[in-house]
Amino acid sequence: MELIIAITGASGAVYACGLLHHLLMRGHGVHLLVSQYGALNLRVELGIDFDEMQPLEILRAIYPQAFSYNYKGTLRAHPVDDLSSPLASGSSTWEAMVIVPCSMRTLAAVAQGFGDNLIHRCADVALKERRRFILVPRETPLSRIHLQNMLQADEAGAVVAPAMPAFYHRPMEIQDLVDFMVGRILCLLGLEPLAGIRWKGLQGE
Ligand SMILES: Cc1cc2nc3c(=O)[nH]c(=O)nc-3n(C[C@H](O)[C@H](O)[C@H](O)COP(=O)(O)O)c2cc1C
């Protein structure tokens, strides 16, 4: 699958890194968009200086062995201010988009169809072309405006999947919580989830 992953300035950049890792392991073609504050959070939360020319660098923070993986997929980063990008057109070939983590600012832009950067514009394209589109918002608490924007995005065709990992799989490490969210996003993309995230009932304990 050819898809877009957008990282915006909400907390939780680690979810995007986990998702990128698993998509590349599985051979997907990923276009990466990182907003200015997405890049800032990559630095604050994971200590990585995002570089459009070397996007694989961002995986190093949580997967130090990333360079030794023989990724089957491809990863290409695009400047977020380039609205002339082929990705911004309805004639583009990408099939799905995930904004993870999704800030309340980007959520508002998506819900209102206000496209002044490539992330917003591609979100517009996803909605108007009826492509698979997943938002992973992160904020707490939520204002009425945030909630209304989520409803509006849902009504326009997006799937709103807040970064809310569960605990029934007894996570022991932060990575277990990350994997839970990554697994749910993979499911929403119609892909096989990670092992262990499907609830098997009490007998499965
Ligand atoms: C360290 C840090 C953490 C932030 N965390 C959040 C957050 O969890 N959720 C959110 O909606 N905004 C958060 N923000 C604010 C957004 O980054 C800010 O609204 C920014 O304008 C978002 O722009 P973008 O959507 O283009 O990335 C955070 C900002 C900083 C500096």
Overview features:
binds flavin mononucleotide, 6 strands, about 15% strand, alpha/beta, Rossmann fold
Brief summary of the model shown:
The chain is of the alpha/beta class and 205 residues long. It has helices spanning 13-25, 36-46, 104-112, 118-128, 144-156, 174-188; strands at 2-7, 29-34, 74-78, 96-102, 132-137, 159-160. The longest helix is centred in the last third of the chain and has 15 residues, at 174-188.
List the helices and strands and how they pair.
Blueprint: E1 2-7, H1 13-25, E2 29-34, H2 36-46, E3 74-78, E4 96-102, H3 104-112, H4 118-128, E5 132-137, H5 144-156, E6 159-160, H6 174-188
Parallel strand pairs: 1-2, 1-4, 2-3, 4-5, 5-6
Bound molecules: flavin mononucleotide (FMN).
What does this structure look like?
The protein is α/β, with parallel strands linked by helices and 205 residues long. It has one domain (2-204): Rossmann fold. The chain has a six-stranded parallel beta sheet with strand order 3-2-1-4-5-6, with helices on both faces. The protein has six helices and six strands; from the N terminus they run βαβαββααβαβα. The N and C termini lie far apart (34 Å). The mean pLDDT is 90. Bound molecules: flavin mononucleotide. Residues 8-11, 35, 37-38, 40-41, 44, 103-106, 138-139 line the site of flavin mononucleotide (FMN).
Looking at CATH, the homologous superfamily is Flavin prenyltransferase-like
Ligand species: flavin mononucleotide
Q: Which range does the strand content fall in?
A: 15-25%
Physical arrangement of strands within the biggest beta sheet: 3-2-1-4-5-6
Q: How many domains in all?
A: 1
Provide the CATH architecture.
Answer: 3-Layer(aba) Sandwich
Helix content percent band? 25-40%
What is the approximate shape?
globular
Structural class: alpha/beta
Alpha-carbon Rg, integer: 16 Å
Number of helices: 6
CATH top level label: Alpha Beta
CATH fold-level assignment: Rossmann fold
Structure summary, number of beta strands: 6
Mean pLDDT: 90
Order of helices and strands: EHEHEEHHEHEH
Q: Main sheet?
A: 6 strands, parallel
Distance between the termini: 34 Å
Regions with little confidence, pLDDT below 50 for 5+ residues: none
